[in-house]
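Working notes for the structural subgroup meeting. M.R. asked for a predicted model of this chain before we commit to crystallization trials. I am recording the input and output together here so anyone reviewing the notebook later can reproduce the run.

Input as submitted:
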Amino acid sequence: MYCGSIDGESHEASQRKIPPASSMLWVRNLRQYIASGAGLGSEALMVAYCCCIDSFSPDHVKPEEGSISRRVQRLAKYRFLKKQSDLLLNADDLDAMLVCLRENCVIDDATGAEKMNYEDFCHIASVCTEQIGPKCRRFFSPSNFMKFEKDESGRIAILPFYLYVMRTVSLTQARIDMSELDEDSDGFLQPHEMEAYIQGLIPNLAQLRDMPAQFVQMYCRIAAHKFFFFCDPHRRVFDEHVRRGKSGGGHAREMDFESFLDFLLALENKDTPEGLTYLFRCLDLHGRGYLTTADIHSLFRDVHQKWIEGGNYELCIEDVRDEIWDMVKPTDSLRITLTDLLSCKQGGTVASMLIDVRGFWAHDNRENLLQEEEEPGEE
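Returned structure, recorded in token form:
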């Protein structure tokens, strides 16, 4: 691509070149870090600039595995993330900050809460900078002080501020850890990368650290799949998962483990946009993006049969259909869309009525169930 060293006009031109914008903040920072040439020689700078920065563009062909460009890309990414990690407060720093906050605050006579005004805030910033270092200074900006609720004296409580610092550090560290696992540096984690991230968290989670070793891999797989279920609802179509067995000896319609997890998550989270999106695509048998009165009649037919077999009173399917229409109030009176179900705030209930006789029973007996919940338990 390019050869020779970078100097003179060619170097200035490379500095003036503006990479494509990105919505990923760490990607933008990485581009700026590489473009600045901090710690890199001129030749390495050009390779990094050409092969690492442009790799974030979706139209760019990524460097081959094992190539010099790929190695420089990984080195630049490692150095950037290491620098960002070094700028974070560690556990000792956070403890020291809490001590500084408590030693330099005032006690509210009415509530007993520990508070500080802006002058105290600036003084604590100076003390923390002396004891901890400049990396804590960014938390003591005027804009941060203005984020918190103030009393009539213009003071803020130190606890919400300290929790804000802790959460910011925790979220930033999590982002760095995830970025380290992003093998192709495209700003996204693949399922196996998310599994690795979750597995790294387990030793630090009290409820999970004693998990049997033979179940760890399966737990990580399930947990990672749940993340992807709620982060990517619109690319999941039920018919894409139901297929013949890979060996050729399976039945016509089967689910693999990931498909079963999707289905289970949707059933357990019917009231969420992600769960309802999945279930709507299951109900949309013709793939038209909407349900008609005929579709409702067909879908409820099996539920109606189970209802009668359970010894319940006779139902008129047309009455149930009309009730669903009244609940949803679709924009088009002849069809129900996913948008209609999401907007009516009762989409989960409608889905339950159409796929599960127990869901319909719960809806039909909702007043009795509500009354039972409100009545005090017997002594």
